[in-house]
Hints:
By secondary structure, this protein is an alpha/beta fold. 34% of the residues lie in helices and 17% in strands.
Amino acid sequence: MHASQAMAVKIVNPGGINAFKFNQRALDLDDKNSFYNLSPRKILKVLATSLYELGVPHPLHVHGCNLGVPGNISTTLNTIDAMEGLPIHLTHVQFHSYGTEGDKKFSSGAAHIAEALNDNENISLDVGQIMFGQTITASGDSMKQHSGSSHAHPNKWVCMDIECDAGCGVVPFRYRDKNFVNALQWCIGLEIFLLAKDPWRVFLTTDHPNGAPFTMYPHLIRLLMDKSFRNDMLHGINKSAQSASVLGSIDREYSLYEIAIMTRAAPALSLGLSDRGHLGESATADITVYSDHENKETMFSKPDYVFKNGNIVVEKGKVTKTQAGNTHVVKPEFDKGIEKHLKKYFDRFHTVKMGNYKISDDELESYSNKSMSTHPCTTR
């Protein structure tokens, strides 16, 4: 975290990218890497414990095993149980909420995810809502990106290895409302949003760009706030997906207050940003002003005013000024004696030297023209 100037740690398909290098094409929570003999459960437990004991504000950010695989709901629920109360954040959980019920062996596990979230206060999540249309999927989960390459639209994709230590894949994709799987994915994400009770532990995302670009957020907010509009959209999708979803029976509509929590206050709190996400004394004045409108997509598509650090940067929907923000970092204490062992690893396996891998404070500030905000760890 010091070397990369990070404020949190995310793990992508724990152990899976490495297992892919040894020709394993799947890795469930308790499967072991064929070379290192380590399971994802072990990796997750050690990392979650470490971050908790170091006092890093944001819990381990988990892109779990078996993304997009029918039946992965059991893996997700087992992952929650495996933490034994340790805090973790489950990212783009819609892609990890699939059952195998029905004739097509693909079903919604949203109710189980919402129940697990409601019952376990150590868990937070973001949804990763898909939206219909063209997008592109980009992920460090090279195992999943490789398996999904056959669905590329258009048929151009790339998967690559990075320094023998990580992976990456980019696959263009088009979500179609008349496709059963895509339509049910759309339903599953909305079901999770609407069945989860605590907006402080559910964050609004489309897993940009994998589910949809973030420019679709106003449309997503309208779906959450307007049941009539949501049902109109539901009636236009694949009929089998409609029948397989409970979405039409859910009456809940998000309030503006809940949207503000889910999109502003809760993420700031989760990241340990005590000066953001609220309008209290000494808060950084990052404020967006909207005119109320019956159509919430129209309302959220173009703000009247945006203030950054108290300075107006958008007026009457037009950008009037650009202003650099801060780089936010968390720097837990560590034994610097570990660096001599890490240097040996870099010298043996990497083309980049450890000294070049590190980003110093001076480099960050001089090249980005940004100031740094270092946030404290919490003693536990």
